[in-house]
Write a structure and sequence with these properties.
mainly alpha
Amino acid sequence: MKSEHLSKEALVEVIYGSTSEPEHLGTCSACREQYRHLLESRKNFVAADSEVPEELLSAQRRAIRSRLSRTVRQTWGRLVPLAATLVIVAAFLIDFDRRPTPSRQAPADDLKVFQEVFELVSDPAPQPVEPIRTFFEESK
């Protein structure tokens, strides 16, 4: 049975402990050599002196503090338009809620109202027939 070599990603997972060491690593000299090379590279990287100068760190802290103070000022700058928008929307809703008052009309004469109702009720033809009647009326 032919076994395939381990990929670089699989070896990195073994180095960082996310997977257990496969049997193939014990039997294959090419994979074992690549594994040893990756371990050595990691050791060299960790052992490298990567001390950051104090001036760089203090400059970063100053930049962060200045950004934080600007953020507070920018927040107030954003709240003013938001408050103005809310006032406009509230004014619109309050004005929209108002209903126009009906205009006062003169009370209709009771006799005239009763006559109109009596005419409508006493007519034997339905109302949709009314427009057709105009075709058959004689002009004077």
